[in-house]
Specification:
Helix content: 55-70%
Low-confidence stretches: 7-18
Oligomer: single chain
Order of helices and strands: HHHH
């Protein structure tokens, strides 16, 4: 996945918690879908999580949720023949 910084127009404007909690949620959403955060986002995320109690609680809850899903919903691998099946169908379509 491509690293992209999450910037917003109110990035420097303090929120009621004193920091941009929405940016933290955006970074979390990107991580959840497998997108690697930029170095800038990682730094912001770490420093913000240490300073913002509501965000820290949210991160902790998300971690618990992800751990729960990992335990209860196993990842199923793709069938070994899938790449050959896809290639065969593509070749048939192109023929």
């Amino acid at each position: 996945m491509e690293n992209t910084a999450t910037t917003s127009t109110n990035q420097n404007a303090p929120s009621p918690e004193g920091a941009d909690c929405e940016r933290v949620n955006t970074i979390l959403d990107q991580i959840i879908v497998g997108q690697e955060p930029s170095a800038e986002d990682e730094s912001y995320f770490a420093s913000h999580a240490e300073d913002c109690s509501p965000c820290f609680d949210s991160i902790d809850k998300q971690r618990i949720f992800v751990d729960f899903l990992s335990q209860k919903v196993g990842r199923k691998g793709a069938p070994a023949a899938l790449p050959q099946t896809i290639l065969a169908r593509l070749q048939a379509e192109m023929a």
